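Try this one yourself first.
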């Protein structure tokens, strides 16, 4: 929508027909219409690091700043954008110290970006990476900026939610409020709640987990991650104290030996008679991802690459006791904003926080399994909390191109009872 038209609508008389046309909020926004427009929010570059296994993988000694810095360099190199034109940087994270406020700023400097480009941290838990991208898109759509970078990072080796989470410092009234108290429920228990309420058996969960690993391994063998992963050279300490310099360019989570028989032998992780195990839940991980976005007219003027456009974004609230069902309701909300239906989507990147909730979403929305996480999901690849949403975008776009697909969806559940989803249209 033209900025002048938008401003005119804001000053029209209350109650008039035109005044009812309100600008969408960033938490539920239409970024682009069905037809291409100069005002579209487009994606120029989407890249990520490989995902390392937390506490024992190649990134266990790598600070978040060192995960992000190579990506900032790669974004500039791949797009040829003038760093001075970047109007804002927003980086999602969940557990970094100081709410991650300094991490994004320091990382941009390590990556060679100028101080004139402002930055901020974003925390909507597991959707933080997607939320950061959506925030940048909303700022572009509203005319605040023309070019921006959204993304996410997480080192679950160095920092975890438990270390920064002290329930004793919360309000004493929480215990007497059922919904407030449910926000403190362990994520694994919410998974069990979803499995029980929506009849997602352990066999179904394990089948999804095995498929996740098989697809990820197949994608690695075919080199399908090469377009999205930026190699990172880092240092890793061995148990004997020695330090090695290594270059990490492959995800460490996928296991070729994962089988239904093996998963069936795993004991419940959160509940004595439960169905959620270490094998059908996401892995704790380290990683980062960045997405460069711009207004179409500006991207065209500057000769920036255009690989996709962001059609819409939505975030919804659900009962915290059943946190994992968020995508089942966020996806339809985002698709409605884009004027699309489930059948219009070629690929769904649904975060596999737990197999229970991922399968519930698939069954609830009647999504064909062949359209879900074609290169594997978080059970195989890992789930670096603040990074995941941006990582999913970086994974989605090359696969849409490879399949000659058009519409892709990224979605995830969010702790305390929410779900987020973004809709993207390939232009490759």
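Now uncover the answer:
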């Amino acid at each position: 929508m033209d900025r002048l038209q938008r401003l005119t609508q804001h000053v029209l008389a209350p109650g008039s027909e035109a005044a009812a046309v309100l600008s969408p909020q960033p938490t539920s926004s239409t970024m682009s219409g069905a037809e291409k427009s100069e005002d579209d929010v487009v994606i120029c570059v989407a890249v990520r690091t490989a995902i390392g296994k937390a506490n024992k993988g190649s990134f266990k000694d790598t600070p978040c700043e060192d995960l992000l810095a190579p990506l900032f360099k790669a974004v500039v190199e791949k797009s040829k954008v003038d760093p001075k034109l970047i109007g804002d940087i927003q980086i999602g994270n969940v557990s970094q110290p100081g709410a991650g406020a300094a991490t994004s700023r320091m990382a941009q400097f390590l990556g060679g970006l100028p101080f004139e480009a402002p930055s901020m941290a974003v925390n909507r838990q597991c959707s933080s990476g997607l939320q950061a991208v959506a925030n940048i898109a909303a700022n572009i759509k509203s005319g605040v900026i023309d070019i921006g970078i959204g993304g996410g990072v997480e080192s679950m080796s160095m920092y975890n939610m438990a270390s920064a989470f002290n329930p004793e410092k919360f309000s004493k009234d929480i215990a007497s409020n059922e919904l407030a108290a449910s926000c403190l429920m362990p994520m694994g228990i919410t998974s069990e709640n979803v499995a029980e309420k929506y009849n997602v058996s352990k066999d179904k969960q394990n089948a999804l987990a095995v498929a996740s690993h098989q697809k990820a391994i197949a994608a690695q063998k075919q080199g399908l991650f090469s377009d999205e992963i930026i190699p990172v050279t880092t240092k890793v300490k061995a148990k004997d104290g020695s330090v090695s310099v290594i270059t990490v360019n492959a995800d460490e989570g996928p296991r070729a030996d994962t089988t239904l028989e093996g998963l069936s032998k795993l004991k419940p992780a959160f509940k004595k008679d439960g169905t959620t195990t270490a094998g059908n839940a996401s892995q704790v991980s380290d990683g980062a991802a960045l997405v460069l976005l711009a207004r179409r007219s500006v991207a065209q003027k500057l000769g920036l690459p255009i690989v996709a456009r962001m059609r819409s974004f939505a975030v919804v609230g659900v009962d915290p006791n059943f946190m994992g069902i968020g995508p089942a309701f966020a996806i339809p909300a985002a698709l409605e904003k884009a004027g699309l239906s489930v059948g219009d989507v070629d690929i769904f990147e649904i975060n596999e926080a737990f197999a229970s909730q991922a399968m519930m979403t698939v069954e609830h929305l009647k999504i064909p399994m062949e359209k879900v996480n074609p290169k594997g999901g978080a059970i195989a690849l890992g789930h670096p909390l603040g990074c995941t949403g941006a990582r999913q975008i970086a994974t989605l776009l090359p696969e849409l191109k490879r399949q000659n697909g058009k519409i892709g969806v990224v979605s995830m559940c969010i702790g305390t009872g929410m779900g987020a989803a973004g809709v993207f249209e390939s232009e490759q």
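Discussion: The chain is about 30% helix and 20% strand. Residues 41 and 295 are 5 Å apart (CA to CA).
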